[in-house]
Amino acid sequence: MGLHYSVEVQQKLVHYIQLIARWNKAFNLTAIRDVEEMVSKHLLDSLVVQPYVEGKTVLDIGSGAGLPGIPFAITSPDKRFTLIDSNGKKTRFLTQAKIDLKLDNVEVIHKRVQDYQPEKHGHRIYFDVITARAYATTDDILNTSAHLQNEATRILIMQGKLDTQITSDQYQLIETHKLDVYGLDAERHLLEIKKAK
Fold first, then answer.
1. Which of 122, 131, 153, 189 has its CA 20 to 30 A from that of 162?
2. Ramachandran assignment for 150, one of left (phi > 0), alpha (psi -120 to 50 degrees), beta (any other)
3. Rounded-to-integer distance, Cα 90 and Cα 138, Å
4. 48-61 pLDDT per residue, tens
5. Can you give the pLDDT at residue 194?
């Protein structure tokens, strides 16, 4: 896949998968139980998108077990990642993973995305990049996170089967990318979207 990481980064990625496998027994973070399957279906499936993540601040919506946010945070220590999920069990796992993996560039938020109103010095915060593994329709993802986007924000939506339907004319589809994930015999696509001017 053309991905090259230091030994330290590779060890952290392995540690992360081991954490998911351990917590999965009690918390049901993911339907996938097999560790080797987790590598292709979770880890590599996330990392294949990383070349499209530009900018300094990234919001991962519906982060769940931290996908793709935690693999991104491990491999891009220079960027800041906010991982948001409404499920308390999942945000507890994310908080523990942040501590265990010593990820100082991660903030975990236990909220619905539409209720999240980040501010700094009285000013609304907008993110450079918003990522989502298609946990909802594209329209739902765009609408619930609209208050966290400005015209510079790139919205990256990870999908299996390609679905380019966007009903709102406030958005434009910049590009679609067909993704090849090593060890995964399934369709994977990425939608790159931004607010229309």
1. 153
2. beta
3. 22
4. 999 999 999 999 99
5. 96
- Residue 72 sits in a domain whose CATH number is 3.40.50.150
Which residues constitute the domain of residue 93? 7-195
| pLDDT tens sequence across 128-187 | 999 999 678 999 999 999 999 999 999 999 998 999 999 989 999 999 999 888 777 888
In a domain, 184, yes or no: yes
Instruction: Count how many domains the chain has.
Output: 1
pTM of the model: 0.94
Note whether residue 14 is domain-resident: yes
On the question of a cis peptide bond just before residue 51, with omega within 30 degrees of 0, the verdict is no
b/e for 69-105, b at 16 or more Cβ within 10 A?
bbbbbbbbeebbbbbbbeeeebbebbeebbeebebeb
Retrieve residue 85's tokens.
């999920």
